[in-house]
Amino acid sequence: MCISRITIDLGKMNGQPCIRNLPIKVWDVYRDLTFHGLAEDEVFQKHHGLEPEDIAAVFSYALNLIKNRTHDEFTGRPILPKDKLEHGQYYKGRCRNATIARWNSNRQCFFS
Known about the structure:
Layout: E1 6-7, E2 18-19, H1 26-34, H2 40-46, H3 52-67, E3 90-92, E4 100-104, E5 109-111
Helix pairs in contact: 1-3
């Protein structure tokens, strides 16, 4: 499994997940690819020692964390799966100024 390429050592890099014990944080690579829009070739140039399998491991690791969350990391509220949301019920977003929106189970989306 490619997630095995991700290592966490509490004594290194402040316990942040790294790639194959290299001093390359998973989240640095993830941000470069998703938020900064760098191509994989640019990421390989920026972070020496990366291999193509490492990119797949970064995305697998992030997806695994997202899918297995039970509570919002900012608000502490439970994250409900779609099948647990009630039609017509209002739910609050993640930040304190978030919009309150109503769940529509027919369309499987929120309306504010």
